[in-house]
Design goal:
two-stranded antiparallel sheet; 414 residues; 14 helices
């Protein structure tokens, strides 16, 4: 008997259907971010980030330009199991002769059409999209959509509108929904003189953006809150309460980034709260370390809890799973795949838990059995099932060796 067959038997004795789990996970779409490959820099000539987010490290080999980034994506995605979509930022526009002439408020689908072709060529399920409301000269005093300066606000409103129209093209090209997430860095370093004004301006700006006549059949929109950013320690316009209420009252989605809350708050617990009120919600699967830091996600406890809340609430079609981490201090490709494999592991792990029994014990008030079974389940032979999952995806556990070779032969020569 193979290790897998033996493991499967052990799980079956626990009343867990291994085949069903393997089948389920491979169909859950993961929106994989393009920005791990080049430290979020994009193709507009920016050489460092600003506006509340930052990458640290100077590991050699970052992708420069569309050709290199596409090559890296092609390489990495081949080692990522499961169903994948590509998540792009507007700063990854392929401008050609328009570089330096056409600004973000004038971006059009033609600047992104090569991405559609590329995504199709590697068999992806679709493209998701993000307006890039940061790292740009038109960010004024750390503000975009909530800026008191009318011209600044107009520029960013226009950019976001254009992005919704571009998203419509992506959605139609793949005949599904392009998911658009709006994150802005707007905030203040020190004690505000006005907390309400920026939020009223943000509310109105978003209303104007959403009224642009975008294709609702092929586009869905979310807003992403954040507790604070580097340089915006005292106030963010787009706070949790602001966006939660905004999304609920406007019929759009709320996106929760795992690194955007107080350190002891967890997104896993917020998922079921939102499921009481929303048909759809979105996540940025990330890993905070003390403060928002977008560390590469690993198969840790909170990731398992997030996956549990998706799986045991049958919410895999309700929750959009997007990855959001960036690390410039280690091999970018190995980091990319490590993160994607971690969410795959977590989802599979959640499918292999005795979820019904756990709920039953809780409802019966049998908390002794609950703690015992939870601990018992941790020792089941999960690795053997995961390796079988990889095998069925045509993959091996080792992605280190081939990606290290790619570093030696390709990225280290950049
Ligand atoms: C920043 C937000 C945002 C970005 C990406 C690049 O704090 O998490 O989602 O990381 O859009
Ligand atoms: Zn995020």
């Amino acid at each position: 008997m193979s290790r897998f067959e033996e493991a499967k038997k052990i799980y079956e004795q626990e009343g867990i259907d291994v085949e069903k789990a393997l089948d389920k996970v491979k169909d859950i779409p993961i929106s994989v971010h393009c920005w791990q490959g080049d430290d979020v820099l994009g193709f507009e000539g920016v050489s460092s980030l600003e506006g509340g987010i930052q990458t640290t490290g100077n590991y050699p080999g970052a992708a420069k330009g569309p050709e290199q980034l596409m090559a890296d994506i092609r390489k990495c995605f081949a080692y990522m199991p499961g169903k994948k979509r590509l998540n792009l930022h507007a700063s990854y526009a392929i401008l050609g002769d328009d570089l330096g002439k056409v600004d973000r408020d004038q971006y059009a689908y033609k600047h992104f059409a090569p991405w559609t072709e590329f995504a199709k060529s590697i068999g992806l399920d679709g493209i998701d999209f993000n307006p890039t409301n940061f790292a740009h000269a038109r960010v004024k005093d750390n503000m975009t959509l909530s800026s008191p300066d009318e011209e600044t606000r107009r520029f960013w409103i226009e950019h976001n509108k254009k992005c919704l129209l571009i998203a419509g093209e992506f959605g139609r090209a793949f005949n599904n929904k392009c998911f658009v997430n709006i994150w802005i860095p707007d905030g203040l370093k020190d004690v505000p003189g006005d907390r309400l004004g920026p939020r009223l301006r943000l509310r109105d700006a978003l209303d104007e953006i959403l009224a642009c006549g975008y294709d609702k059949e092929h586009v869905e929109v979310a807003v992403e809150c954040k507790l604070f950013g580097i340089g915006m320690e005292s106030y963010t316009t787009g706070s949790s309460e602001f966006y939660q209420n905004y999304a609920a009252t406007r019929g759009i989605l709320s996106l929760m980034d795992m690194g955007h809350y107080h350190p002891t708050e967890v997104v896993s617990d917020k998922i079921p709260s939102l499921l009481c009120f929303y048909d759809r919600l979105a996540l940025h699967v990330s890993r905070p370390v003390r403060w928002d830091s977008d560390h590469v996600i690993i198969f840790d406890d909170e990731l398992k809890e997030v996956a549990k809340e998706i799986i045991r609430n049958n919410a895999e079609k309700k929750v959009i799973i997007g990855l959001d981490y960036f690390d410039a201090s280690i091999n970018r490709e190995i980091a990319w795949v490590t993160g994607e494999r971690s969410i795959q592991k977590a989802l599979l792990y959640a499918c292999l838990l005795p979820n019904e029994k756990l709920k039953e014990y809780q409802d019966k008030g049998d908390f002794t059995s609950l703690i015992y079974l939870q601990e018992h389940a941790k020792m089941l032979p999960f690795a053997d099932i995961y390796n079988e999952y990889l095998k069925r995806q045509g993959m091996e556990e080792d992605y280190y060796t081939p990606l290290k070779k790619y570093e030696d032969e390709v990225t280290s020569k950049r």
